[in-house]
Amino acid sequence: MRSEWAEKDYYADLGVSSSASAEEIKRAYRTLARANHPDKNPGDKRAEERFKKAAEAYDVLGDESKRAEYDEFKRTLATGGFGGLGGYGAGFRGQDFSDIFGGGGYSQEGGLGDIFSGLFNRGGATRNTARATRGADVETEITLDFREAAKGTVIPIQLTGQAPCSACHGSGSRTGSTTTCTTCHGSGYRSESRGAFGLSAPCEDCDGTGQRVTDPCHECSGLGTVHRTRSITVRIPAGVIDGQKVRLAGKGEAGPKGKPAGDLFVTVRVRPDAVFTRTGDDLEVTVPVSFAELALGDTVSVPTLDAPVRVKIPAGTPNGRTLRVRGRGVPKRDGKAGDLLVTVNVTVPKNLDAVSATALRTYAEAEKASGFDPRSGWAGTK
């Protein structure tokens, strides 16, 4: 659990109830992200703030384990703050509160972890670690051809949002000079008394970094980031399916003052193909053949994602049978590939010349003479 959650209401930030399902939470986040995305609201600080709050809320509520921790933390606060200090021996005997509140011993800034560490003599080291902030996550969509998605590709895309300032290289300072924040004394947190003990929250004067810029960059006003359009190259792995999300760590919006960037989530849309379909890692294709090729057997050329292959049709193959060619399907992550499933489909000629018609009649008469009846045993003849 994290002490900064005490002042957050992530359900309200997403506009859902605390009993909302995972799907409802995801839907609410996507709606807010689309409506307030910086690309749609250039220069709108309010929309940008709503976008970041929604992303932060979804980062917690969209993760099952984090949501459970957050809910338990809120429930405990609502019932009086972790059982109160009176009678703590029964409620917290032998429990390591450095695990619950993110670790940390006592410091002059205080906080839940500090108080409980002092009470139970657990984790007595002093810590002045600043809050680890990061840039916002970004979502976008791309559309690929069927074969690009199956084989994998590299595609350039453009994103508009917070990017590192080129003038100060993301530091927020013209010379890289900083000083310890006088509000939080370099801890990155400010303390607040709540009844019998205190809570900590990120320091607003230094954005939780513990440091303040003494000579702000003129280009970014000390933020370390600017709103601009940038181009990045996205590598799409082989075998992605329609609707799949690809995560690119650190390719989202830049973090403030040199902090880590958020992640980029790319939703892949796949166009249908005129020749192929797929089931899992198997590639499917229907090949037109003649009656003679099925009856007598033959070898036909069949397309693949790469060069065509020759597929042998055994004599007497019935129409609609599927032949399997191993290893010529969609590539897998382990370097192997699925199979190519070839379905043969008889194509009947619409117009026969005189020679072909005569030959076919001769065959039909011979077929009857041999006693062959294509409807023998058919249920419709009973």
Automatic annotation (TrEMBL):
Q: Which gene encodes it?
A: dnaJ
Q: Which residues bind Zn(2+) 2?
A: C181, C184, C203, C206
Q: Which GO terms describe its cellular component?
A: cytoplasm
Please report the name of this protein according to its UniProt entry. Answer: Chaperone protein DnaJ
Residues that coordinate or bind Zn(2+) 1: C165, C168, C217, C220
Which family does the record assign? Answer: Belongs to the DnaJ family.
Co-factor note (free text):
Binds 2 Zn(2+) ions per monomer.
**Tagged with keyword Transmembrane helix:** no
InterPro entries listed in its UniProt record: DnaJ, DnaJ_C, DnaJ_domain, DnaJ_domain_CS, HSP40/DnaJ_pept-bd, HSP_DnaJ_Cys-rich_dom, HSP_DnaJ_Cys-rich_dom_sf, J_dom_sf
Zinc fingers (CR-type) at which residues? Answer: 152-229
What SUPFAM superfamilies does the annotation carry?
Answer: Chaperone J-domain, DnaJ/Hsp40 cysteine-rich domain, HSP40/DnaJ peptide-binding domain
Keyword presence, Nucleotide-binding:
no
Residues of the CR-type domain: 152-229
Q: How does it assemble?
A: Homodimer.
Biological process terms from the Gene Ontology for this record are: DNA replication; protein refolding; response to heat
One Pfam family from the record: DnaJ_C
Domain J, which positions?
9-74
What are the recorded GO MF terms, alphabetically?
ATP binding; heat shock protein binding; unfolded protein binding; zinc ion binding
Relate the protein's function as given in its record. Participates actively in the response to hyperosmotic and heat shock by preventing the aggregation of stress-denatured proteins and by disaggregating proteins, also in an autonomous, DnaK-independent fashion. Unfolded proteins bind initially to DnaJ; upon interaction with the DnaJ-bound protein, DnaK hydrolyzes its bound ATP, resulting in the formation of a stable complex. GrpE releases ADP from DnaK; ATP binding to DnaK triggers the release of the substrate protein, thus completing the reaction cycle.
Named cofactor requirement(s): Zn(2+)
Q: Which UniProt keywords apply?
A: Chaperone, Cytoplasm, DNA replication, Metal-binding, Repeat, Stress response, Zinc, Zinc-finger
CXXCXGXG motif repeat coordinates = 165-172, 181-188, 203-210, 217-224
* Localization per Swiss-Prot or TrEMBL: Cytoplasm
Domain notes from UniProt: The J domain is necessary and sufficient to stimulate DnaK ATPase activity. Zinc center 1 plays an important role in the autonomous, DnaK-independent chaperone activity of DnaJ. Zinc center 2 is essential for interaction with DnaK and for DnaJ activity.
Q: Which PANTHER family match?
A: CHAPERONE PROTEIN DNAJ 1, DNAJ HOMOLOG 1, MITOCHONDRIAL-RELATED
